[in-house]
Design a protein that fits this description.
Order of helices and strands: HHHHEHEHEE
Number of strands: 4
Radius of gyration: 31 Å
Helix content: 40-55%
Largest sheet: 4 strands, mixed
Strand order of the largest sheet: 1-4-2-3
Number of domains: 2
């Protein structure tokens, strides 16, 4: 196992230079080392802040156990309306039996979801604790644990599918309960009834109405569970992507960038974000949030890049980013073409890393240029 001080020494030797700037976020003040210290070959001036272990926790599921009260029995009156009342009461009994089955299924899937989520977070906690103290890049033990965590998260997602199926069945019973209540009320208008028929109809109407309310509450609580669990699984999937990069680098990053960015609005919703177009402004005169110099093979840029983007989003959750491939202007036409192609490949790699870290693709634009101040192939990230 590699101690954290060894991890810092490894970062000090990489060829990526991460340059923080003062005003690119507009209205936010930064000190010269606010985002990340220089990593151009000198020891960092300060150790990186520890990342807390344990990301998001499973949302609280509903706790209601839906108990059904059987309908009040009634004596036959011998009239046609009395027979109708008995038939409607039997329909209500069958509906309530179905509701009991739904409630039993709901309680079971809730217990199952809690167990699966606890197992998943146990695997994630193991990975994060190993990364927190430092470990070897691509540790196979952590890769196996990550694969288990992914399977365990899919088990939680399967629980959501069961909830959706249950919600569909409850919705069918909700429609049936509404029809049954309307039928009970319509029975008041049937001719040939005695007073006892109407008394029993009134009792049956109350019993049916209580069942309608109970089904509505069950469906509402179930829908809330599905909504919260779906958002939770989506966030955890994004965090797993970031955790995979952390395992590759052998150190803990933190939760996904998606948790810090304001989500884009769906198509057709005004006031939302649209995919940013590459800026027409050149790189000269612009101060980059991050500059990564690819002056050697296997530049380890992902940890400092993650921290820089994370802090940018903490200050401006709606920020968008221009990723620009920058090549030198020196050399002949052939050299310029080779450098340009290499810089674009590097920039595409950086964009893939950002997406894996959870940064939505509609927050990132990609372009390329050459610059007189570039001495080697670079990727510069700008905020706008």
């Amino acid at each position: 196992m590699i101690e954290s001080v060894h991890a810092l020494r490894r970062f000090a030797l990489v060829g990526a230079s991460i340059l923080a700037f003062g005003g690119a976020l507009g209205g936010c003040s930064f000190s010269s080392d606010a985002l990340w210290p220089s990593l151009s070959g000198e020891d960092p001036s300060a150790a990186p802040t520890s990342v807390p272990i344990g990301g998001s926790t499973p949302p609280q599921l509903g706790r209601t156990n839906f108990q059904i009260t059987p309908p009040e029995p009634g004596q036959p009156t011998g009239t046609f309306v009395g027979q109708k009342v008995q038939q409607l009461r039997q329909d209500l009994v069958r509906l309530q039996d179905s509701l009991r089955t739904h409630n039993s299924s709901l309680q079971q899937v809730r217990r199952q979801t809690i167990e699966n989520a606890q197992t998943y977070h146990g695997s994630v906690g193991f990975i994060e604790s190993r990364l927190q103290v430092g470990t070897t890049p691509g540790n196979p033990t952590l890769i196996d644990a990550w694969n288990r965590a992914q399977s365990e998260l899919e088990a939680v997602n399967s629980d959501i599918s069961q909830m959706n199926d249950l919600a569909n069945r409850v919705s069918s019973d909700a429609a049936l309960s509404t029809y049954l209540l309307e039928s009970v009320r319509a029975a008041y208008g049937l001719s040939g009834a005695v007073e006892e028929d109407h008394i029993q109809l009134a009792v049956l109407e109350d019993d049916t109405n209580q069942t309608v309310v109970l089904i509505d509450r069950l469906l509402t609580e179930l829908s809330d569970d599905i909504r919260r669990q779906s958002a939770y699984v989506s966030a955890e999937r994004s965090d797993l992507g970031t955790l995979a990069i952390a395992i590759k680098n052998g150190e803990l990053f933190g939760s996904s960038l998606a948790s810090r960015a304001i989500p884009s609005a769906p198509l057709g919703v005004t006031g939302g974000f649209t995919a940013p177009r590459p800026t027409q402004q050149g790189v000269v005169g612009r101060r980059a949030l991050v500059t990564i110099r690819f002056d050697r093979p296997n530049v380890e840029y992902e940890q400092p890049l993650f921290n820089a983007i994370k802090q940018a989003l903490e200050r401006r959750p709606d920020a968008m980013f221009d990723v620009v491939a920058v090549s030198p202007q020196s050399g002949g036409a052939g050299r310029a073409a080779l450098d340009g192609n290499a810089a674009r490949r590097n920039a595409q790699q950086v964009v893939r890393s950002l997406n894996d870290m959870g940064l939505p693709s509609d927050r990132v634009s990609l372009s390329s240029t050459s610059a007189p101040d570039a001495r080697t192939n670079e990727v510069r990230i700008f905020v706008r």
